[in-house]
């Protein structure tokens, strides 16, 4: 009887094997793509709600394979995080994001945010590497914002915390990403010097049906003294709600989609680590 019960699992095993094969294929190709500096950066604007001026840009990794196939960041970031590839990926993204800031025509006050994963923050020398990159790019630390998720800080607390405190000391801003998603711990808001809290896009969506919870989350985030950014703003109605709730900053398709940055091709491979 027990043997019988297991039989329906056979098709699942085939799917599971396919998933593993896909992952292995992605890992091999991602490794090559990083060696060749084929990853690119897209910038999405973060705007002041009151006058719609640009405060800065979030840097988002983009991978278009040589055959033209687009791989979603959610998929390749997960592959990178489960291997050693997240370190070169993170360095290349920081390099591209900082370079994007120093292009002609970008105002001096504009900031850039980069996403940093738990695996990167778990390395003791992360803060030194990033500080060296800032110096090499000649960008003042206060124009850089690090976006970290809760899990990034909770998984390897002591080292992650040390890295973030050391960077905050130099003037780099720390943002708590996806706040209001999953189990948001209020304790964490007290433990680290976040200057920005980003409200999760899903909470924005559900907040349009019933704003009670959204309003409470925004109040908690603001009470820490951090600037609140609402993510995933897609409609005028959402923007009006943000004005009513006195949310200072917003990001989303309504205000600007992520746009690929074009760099002169020859300068890339020479400078990137
Ligand atoms: P995230 O950090 O929460 O980034 C926001 C995601 O929402 C981006 O997806 C962005 O394109 C998308 N988005 C922006 N505005 C809207 C909107 O109005 N509506 C909707 N539906 N979506 C919107 P993307 O670029 O696919 O990135 C997915 C995730 O991959 C990011 O989520 C982040 O966790 C991760 N990621 C991307 N680039 C990097 C990177 O360089 N390093 C690390 N560690 N993670 C990255
Ligand atoms: Ca982010
Ligand atoms: Ca986010
Ligand atoms: Ca996310």
Automatic annotation (TrEMBL):
It comes from the Bacteria. Residues 23-272 form the EAL domain. This is Diguanylate cyclase/phosphodiesterase with PAS/PAC and GAF sensor(S). The chain holds residues 645 to 917 of 917 of the full protein.
């Amino acid at each position: 009887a027990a043997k019988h019960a297991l039989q329906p699992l056979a098709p699942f095993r085939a799917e599971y094997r396919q998933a593993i094969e896909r992952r292995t294929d992605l890992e091999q190709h991602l490794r090559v793509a990083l060696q060749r500096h084929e990853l690119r950066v897209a910038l999405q604007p973060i705007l002041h709600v009151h006058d719609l001026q640009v405060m800065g840009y979030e840097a988002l990794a983009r991978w278009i394979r040589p055959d033209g196939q687009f791989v979603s960041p959610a998929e390749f970031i997960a592959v990178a995080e489960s291997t050693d590839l997240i370190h070169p990926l993170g360095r290349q993204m920081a390099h591209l994001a900082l370079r994007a800031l120093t292009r002609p025509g970008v105002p001096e006050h504009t900031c850039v945010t980069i996403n940093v994963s738990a695996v990167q923050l778990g390395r003791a020398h992360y803060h030194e590497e990033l500080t060296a990159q800032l110096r090499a790019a000649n960008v003042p630390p206060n124009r850089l914002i690090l976006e970290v998720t809760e899990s990034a800080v909770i998984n390897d607390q002591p080292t992650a915390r040390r890295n973030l405190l050391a960077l905050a000391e130099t003037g780099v801003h720390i943002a708590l990403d996806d706040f209001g998603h999953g189990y948001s711990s209020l304790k964490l808001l007290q433990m680290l010097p976040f200057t920005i809290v980003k409200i999760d896009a899903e909470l924005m969506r559900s907040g349009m049906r019933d704003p009670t919870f959204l309003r409470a989350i925004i109040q908690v985030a603001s009470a820490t003294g951090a600037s609140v950014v609402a993510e995933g703003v897609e409609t005028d109605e959402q923007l009006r709600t943000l004005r009513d709730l006195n949310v200072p900053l917003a990001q989303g398709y309504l205000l600007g989609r992520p746009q690929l940055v074009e760099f002169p091709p020859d300068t890339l491979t020479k400078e990137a680590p």
